[in-house]
């Protein structure tokens, strides 16, 4: 589950060595925008050593690499390729480029004798990327897609707002493409790290559109995003009741049935299962009604 | 004489400076020298061995860096020295 993916600057040892304590599901070690051009070499060496020294199973470790046009992509990959690396986060993604990225990754995996393939999470942050999301979503190695609202707004020559209405179309496009392809839809970071109320509203909007998680640019955003994405007690109570009623109905060989006067059929049961899954609940016994 | 450096003097980092030398010598200044001098020395020499570097002088100004940082800073400093 990738509900929270926390960006950590790749050339910052203090932040790297504490990256696992904040409770994010994944950490994106950033070699791109967070690192000055003159420090790219130092950052990739540091991130490479960090990955190789990593001893834990969680959180998931990802690296935002520099894109192919930068000329730094292949050096980044050489430095970070190891079995601890779950996926690269690829900036300003487009279909053609991602085929080339896949080819290069295959070569690197062979050369480094890796035991598992390196995944890709492309960042959709250009108008071209948005219109290509359907094609991108079915490319090999994809674990999800991440919406990059700041660069996308710059590309579109529009302003970002607190409410994020300008992102309604790309958000919808990306979440549908990800759902159809069975991969994670990860929402753009919320830029104001001191606006918890705005963050909560923004994350709830993303969740309501079908996003499965959100990128994080400051550790103080993690709890708020988890709160927005985790089902609330009423939803969990409802889901448990649906699952319990479905089990009873199955014993009676009923397809659809009624609960509180509303028809319950397969799609509703599937939604209830999804709520329990997101809440991390494996014990499906009916709980007490929340106060 | 060729010189290379990498890292910073901020907390949990180390500023590593390398220059050509005869044999291997390592100078360490660390805020945790009393406890971790040997470990820093070991990390530096391990990275030099991995890179097959045999003639170099390394200065480490350590601000509490972990091994992975020391290794990375040594490697980058050498790569920068070699241009």
Polypeptide structure, described:
With 291 residues, chain A is an alpha/beta fold. Chain A has twelve helices and ten strands. In chain A, strands 1-2-3-4-5-6-7-8 form an eight-stranded parallel beta barrel. A two-stranded antiparallel ribbon of chain A has the order 9-10. In chain A, helix 4 links the parallel strand 4 (87-90) and strand 5. The mean pLDDT of chain A is 93. By secondary structure, chain B is of the alpha+beta class. Chain B has a single domain, classed as Ribosomal Protein S5, domain 2 (2-Layer Sandwich), CATH 3.30.230. Chain B has helices spanning 33-50, 67-82; strands at residues 3-6, 14-20, 24-30, 56-62. In chain B, helix 1 packs across helix 2. The longest helix of chain B is centred in the middle third of the chain and has 18 residues, at 33-50. The mean pLDDT of chain B is 95.
Give the overall shape of chain A: globular
Q: Termini separation of chain B (Å)? A: 13 Å
Q: How would you describe the shape of chain B?
A: globular
Which residue ranges of chain A are poorly predicted, with pLDDT under 50 across at least 5 consecutive positions? Answer: none
The stretches of 5 or more residues of chain B where confidence is low (pLDDT under 50) are none
Number of structural domains of chain B:
1
Helix and strand pattern of chain A: EHEHEHEHEHHEHHEHEHHEEH
- Residue share in helix of chain A: 40-55%
Beta fraction of the residues of chain A?
Answer: 15-25%
- Helical element count of chain A? 12
Strand order of the largest sheet of chain A: 1-2-3-4-5-6-7-8
Mean pLDDT of chain A: 93
What kind of oligomer do you see? heterodimer
**CATH overall fold name of chain B:** Ribosomal Protein S5, domain 2
What is Rg of chain B? 11 Å
| Rg on CA atoms of chain A, Å | 21 Å
């Amino acid at each position: 589950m990738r509900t929270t993916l926390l960006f950590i600057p790749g050339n910052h040892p203090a932040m790297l060595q504490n990256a696992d304590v904040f409770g994010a599901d994944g950490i994106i070690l950033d070699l791109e925008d967070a690192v000055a051009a003159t420090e790219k070499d130092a950052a990739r060496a540091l991130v490479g050593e960090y990955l190789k020294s990593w001893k834990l199973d969680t959180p998931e470790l990802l690296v935002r690499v520099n894109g192919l046009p930068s000329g730094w992509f292949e050096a980044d990959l050489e430095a970070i390729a190891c079995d601890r690396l779950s996926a690269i986060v690829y900036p300003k993604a487009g279909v053609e480029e991602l085929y080339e990225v896949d080819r290069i990754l295959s070569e690197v995996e062979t050369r480094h004798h890796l035991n598992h393939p390196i995944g890709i999470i492309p960042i959709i942050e250009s108008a071209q990327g948005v219109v290509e999301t359907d094609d991108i979503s079915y490319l090999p190695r994809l674990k999800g897609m991440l919406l990059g609202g700041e660069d996308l707004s710059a590309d579109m020559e529009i302003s970002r707002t607190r409410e994020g209405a300008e992102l309604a179309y790309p958000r919808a496009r990306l979440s549908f493409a990800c759902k159809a392809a069975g991969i994670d839809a990860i929402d753009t970071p919320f830029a104001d790290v001191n606006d918890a109320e705005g963050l909560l509203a923004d994350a709830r909007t993303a969740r309501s559109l079908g996003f499965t998680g959100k990128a994080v640019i400051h550790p103080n955003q993690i709890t708020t995003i988890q709160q927005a994405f985790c089902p609330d007690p009423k939803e969990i109570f409802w889901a448990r009741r649906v699952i319990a009623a479905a089990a009873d109905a199955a014993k009676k060989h009923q397809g659809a049935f009624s609960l509180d006067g509303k028809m319950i059929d397969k799609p509703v049961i599937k939604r209830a299962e999804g709520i329990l899954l997101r809440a991390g609940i494996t014990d499906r016994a009916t709980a007490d009604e929340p106060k | 004489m060729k010189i290379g450096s990498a890292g910073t003097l901020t907390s949990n980092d180390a500023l590593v400076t390398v220059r050509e030398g005869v044999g291997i010598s390592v100078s360490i200044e660390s805020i945790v020298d009393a406890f971790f001098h040997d470990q820093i020395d070991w990390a530096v020499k391990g990275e030099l061995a991995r890179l097959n570097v045999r003639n170099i002088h390394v200065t480490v100004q350590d601000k509490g860096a972990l091994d992975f940082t020391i290794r990375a800073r040594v490697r980058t400093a050498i790569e920068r020295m070699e241009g």
